[in-house]
Amino acid sequence: MSLSRTVAWVVGDLLLAGAVGIAMYGSLQHPTDQSGLFWSPSSPFLLVLALIGGVIAFWAWDQSEGKHRKGGFLRIVGVLSLGTILLGAASYWYCYPERMFFWAPILEGLTLFTGSYDDPFGGVALPCPSSLPVGLQMARVGAFMTIFASVLGLLTGYLKNVSDRSWVHWRTSHTIVVGSGSAGLATSPIEIAEDVRSFISMKKRLILPSVGLSEQEIALLRRNNTSIIELNMSMHETINKNLARISQRTSSIFFIDSNPEANIDNFETFIASRDTAKFTKNEIVHGILRIDDHWRGDEYRRNSLNISPNCFVDVISVYSSTARILAERLLQENVSEVVILGQSPLVQALLSEFVIRDREAAGIQQTEETSIASVHVVGARAEDLVRDYELFQRRFGSWNSRHQVKHVPIEPSFETLASMQGGDKRIAIIYTEEPFGGSAQLPQQLAVRYPKCLQYLFSRSISGISGQAMLGSLYGFGFTLALEEGFTSGIWGRMARLKHQRFLNDIGEPPTTTIASRKPWDMGLDRFYKLGNVRPILNLLYATSTLGMNWLPNQAAAHASQMRARISQGELAQLARSEHDSWVDYMSGAGWSNGKRNDALKRHPDLVPWAALCQESIRKNVAGVFDTMELLALMGFHPYRISGKDQDANGWARYVRFGEVEAALLTVSTTWKTDNGDVLVGDVGDWEISHEGRKWTVKPDVFTKSYKFVGEKRWQRIGAVFARTSLTDDHLDTLEGEASSKPKDMILFGLLGETWAVSPEEFHRSYREDL
Question: Is the pTM of this model over 0.85?
Fold first, then answer.
């Protein structure tokens, strides 16, 4: 028992004992004069104060440190009952001097619980006591309080269930959490519920099924703004009665049981109930499934992209969540080299997390390299683990050759790890399993010898990363399902955050907290705008499925890039229209309407049917489709034909720039000719590019996204474009003027909406297909 609980317990005992003592003193000292106010005029006040103080003290003992103990009402009723009987017995003590000296006063005290309005003191016929002392009056009050507390306790349990069900049925938006998620984790359902609230960026009420929760957990969850309802996902009648009625008003649903089969089955049940119920098509539902197996989780995510245009599914695991918080800590500590020990699935999760962070940095074109320059996997199976990692990355088109992963296929020893120390590099060692045998003392030995070497030691008794070092720079950590604030733990949320950051970068102005749509993601950006960044990703994933494409590579392909789909001109037009229609539905559902742009009044000029759009707005929708496809490609998602055969060999495909050029800022206007003889204009402030005898100009915003400074006048070509083969003589409206293309020329579309054409020879010298 902690000190605060001990103090509260002692104070409660003393105060209640004092209250009883005051009453008994008056009765025992003045048995023939019961009309007074006991032995002192102030005794009634002291009595009331002692009783109230005692009850408060016991309540504080019960609630101290935020803990709730089972049977709180029973303890309160017990304390009140004991106080009532003792006070009543003291008042009747001398009424039976000859017989039943002890039992009679107690029995008379018990009658206080049965008194009526006309006969409040239990029908006592004796003239003793001759009047009502304060002790007897307080005993009667205690009896009333006991009865009231008992009835209240019974009603609360019943009415809480009724109120939870009523709230669920009438609330317009729900977040449901199915499964405690705590199996194998040092995490409670209460902590998971708070993580969910942080994840959805809303202090809103949650819904949890009662299955698998103890009475203590249910009580604590309810006190933390959580509704508990009966929701057995395996019972058809329960689905009809409960799930179908709330599924159409669900904004987020989490299936976090440790059993992936149960999570998948429950999610499909939820989708089935949602399909049979009426729901608002503008409501975007976020589904989170826990699947701890790395390969299966990613494959299920990709296979679930065409479930619904209004439901996006993401997969989390204890390994990916733990890897995320470890990677975040390493970056905060400016670690440049990581050593990973063990054979746990956490090894694969860590390597994948490092790749994702590299790709996120590339997505916003950070010029500096990632702080984690290299990773060493040490252990007898290190080579197999690295090969599995490379196979996974190539299988799903996520390979990143810039990230160096080395394997050291020997058992870790003090000598091996000590040899990696030294120099200016900041090294971190991660033990993905609890050390045993001869290596059990290895972390402590390194911590003593190299106190600045960061070490993270796995322990099943810890959730997340411990806040205090165990020795030197040795920290403990354990598996966690901790969700990052702002629903960015899953890949789609992280992609939405990246999309918003790219939008802020394209504006070219510092982020602000005064304009709602331009707030940084973690600085109060409204959920409407966060989901607005998810929406185009979700819509494109679903729209491509209607065109016979998916985002999972064909198993028969030797390399993922061999089967990537090319988007025909007709398909591109359909995707652009689908993007516009989806945007109109989303904005209209939030109360926006057509009119001159005014965010405060929710007006936008493009809230019109597709046929009424101007050419500039159509071009923006096409650019939006390409931008979303580029974002997906950066994170390792590429479209594939379900049939395995491409419908249009001349369709749009993604290519990356390579090579170096010379560039200089124009101080005067200039003109230049394309390969087809078109004369284009470069304005002051544009950049003039020179390469192998050719010259052309580029607008400043395009130049920033397309070139990286190397040294002196040398610039490296970076970024990606979408290109297709021209089949006819085409007219192009470029940023530098009107141009043309001939058959077999390559028409390029940049990520800022710019178009241009180059000869096939020049194209192959400057662009290559992304592998």
Answer: no
The encoded tokens of residue 102 equal: 């002890």
- CA dist 106 → 18, 75, 82, 122 (Å): 19, 21, 11, 13
Q: What is the pLDDT of residues 589-638, one digit of tens each?
A: 889 999 998 888 999 999 999 999 998 899 899 999 999 998 888 888 88
Q: What is the CATH number of domain 320-478?
A: 3.40.50
Q: What is the dihedral of CA 737, 742, 744, 748, to 10 degrees?
A: 10
Tell me the C-alpha distance between 487 and 456, whole Å.
26
Closest C-alpha among 583, 694, 564, 705 to residue 629: 564
> Left if phi > 0, otherwise alpha if psi is -120 to 50, otherwise beta: which for 650?
alpha
Per-residue tokens: 375: 């990773």
Q: What's the CA gap between 466 and 468, in Å, rounded?
A: 6
Contacts of 745 (CB under 8 A, 6+ apart): 675, 676, 725, 726, 757, 758, 759, 760
Q: Residue 671 has what pLDDT?
A: 93
User: 123 — alpha (psi -120 to 50), left (phi > 0) or beta?
Assistant: left
pLDDT digits (tens, 9 = 90+) for 483-514: 665 555 678 888 888 999 888 888 777 777 77
Q: Are 314 and 301 in contact (CB under 8 A)?
A: yes
Domain ranges of the chain: 3-153, 171-316, 320-478, 491-641, 653-769
Residue count (the chain): 771
Give the CATH number of domain 491-641. 1.10.490
Q: Which helix (H) or strand (E) holds 311?
A: strand 311-316
Span 171-316: which CATH code? 3.40.50.720
With bands split at pLDDT 50, 70 and 90, how would you rate the model's confidence at 118? Answer: very low
**Angle formed by the axes of helices 491-507 and 615-634, nearest 10°:** 130
* Listed residue (741, 304, 231, 316) closest to 487, CA to CA: 316
The C-alpha atoms of residue 23 and residue 38 are separated, in whole angstroms, by: 7
Q: Which of 464, 344, 358, 465 is nearest to 404 (CA)?
A: 358
Chain mean pLDDT for the chain: 75
Q: Do the first three CATH levels of 171-316 and 320-478 match, i.e. the same topology?
A: yes
**Selection from 287, 364, 355 nearest residue 323 by Cα:** 355
How far apart (Å, rounded) are the C-alpha atoms in residues 305 and 314? 9
**Helices and strands: H and E segment counts in the chain:** 22, 31
Amino acid at 300: Y
Distance set, CA 420 to CA 272, 391, 415, 769 (Å):
55, 27, 9, 38
Position 660 confidence tier, pLDDT thresholds 50, 70, 90? very high
* 133 cis-preceded (ω within 30 degrees of 0): no
